[in-house]
Amino acid sequence: MSSSVLYDAPGPKARTRNRLYLVIGSLAVVAVLAFVVYRLNVKGQLDPKVWDIFNNAGVRTNIRDGVLTTLKVFALAGALSLALGLLLAVARLSEHRAVSWAATTFVELFRAVPLLITIYALWVVFLTYKNDLGVIGENSAFWGLVIGLTVYNGCVQAEVFRAGINAVPRGQVEAAYALGLRKYQVMTTLLLPQAVRSMLPTMISQLVVTLKDTSLGYVITYTELLFATRTMANNIIVNGENPFTAVTIVVAAIYIAMCLALSSLATWIERRGRRTRTGVAVAVAAEPAEQPGVLDVTGVSLGAADGDAKKAER
């Protein structure tokens, strides 16, 4: 039976108990799923007419447009949050106290404020405007959502960058300064490349959070996936009811698919990074050609050895 300091291999009784727990847990999950399906059937949510709405071209178009607007916000907010996070991380590590304190205050403040409040405050206080018809412009909601996501997730990414930079061994930094490199050269050529490489899976995991947080756009009436599908469900009546449950299940499946895609990317990057950190095999140097008077591996001159052999023959 193999064992280690942190883990002891289970014995026969423990294995039997674990199998029992697995069976009980699986039965519990199946029972919950069966109860959910039963309740949906009782409420009429499994009626084929309810799910037939997704065969309508207009419904599919609304869902497609919602996915595209969600991805547009995510792409812009994700890129800006990474840039802001890098800037804040470098500022927090600055030797100038004023810069470091300002960055620390900014990060701690917006990490403490709920994202929903940040998005709503940006939309109401700074970005709302009305056109000639007195209607609030769509771009205000778009930028309110993008800036809110950028500020909050940028603060989180700043801590990820800072952790990666602090994880670089101090000896490498001291060696770089000993070689005459300046501060910005040490940061750009030594610290940041290693920090990004080591923390890349965590960064992508935070991007998954950014993608999910785009659903908060419904608060400021931005037509992302959740708001667009809820509005669509309000305009559809099946069996005298709005199909909110069916639409919510489909939207949840879409969000899960997008988040799983990003999570799979993070896992692939982590595995690839683990393989590359194993190192590169050093090539074996070729043996030098034998020349008269050149020492061999024993340290004896080949020419001298030949002379001694001739003397022995004499």
Question: How many helices?
Answer: 11
Following the backbone from N to C, one meets helices and strands in this order, namely HHHHHHHHHHH
User: What's the overall average pLDDT, rounded?
Assistant: 81
Low-confidence stretches: 132-136, 279-286, 292-305
Indicate the percent of residues in helices.
over 70%
Which outline best applies? flat
Q: How widely separated are the two ends?
A: 69 Å
**Class of secondary structure makeup:** mainly alpha
Rg (C-alpha, Å): 32 Å
Largest sheet geometry:
none
SSE layout and pairings?
Elements: H1 12-42, H2 48-51, H3 57-92, H4 97-112, H5 115-127, H6 138-166, H7 170-178, H8 183-213, H9 225-234, H10 244-276, H11 302-313
Helix pairs in contact: 3-4, 3-6, 3-8, 3-9, 4-6, 5-6, 6-8, 7-8, 8-10, 9-10
Please sum up the structure shown.
This protein is mostly helical. The chain has helices spanning 12-42, 48-51, 57-92, 97-112, 115-127, 138-166, 170-178, 183-213, 225-234, 244-276, 302-313.
Structure description:
The structure is a single chain. The protein has 314 residues and is an all-alpha fold. It contains eleven helices and no strands. Helix 3 (57-92) crosses helix 6, helix 8 (183-213) packs antiparallel against helix 10 (244-276) and helix 9 (225-234) packs antiparallel against helix 10. The longest helix is centred in the first third of the chain and has 36 residues, at 57-92. The relative contact order is 0.10. Residues 132-136, 279-286 and 292-305 have low confidence and may be disordered.
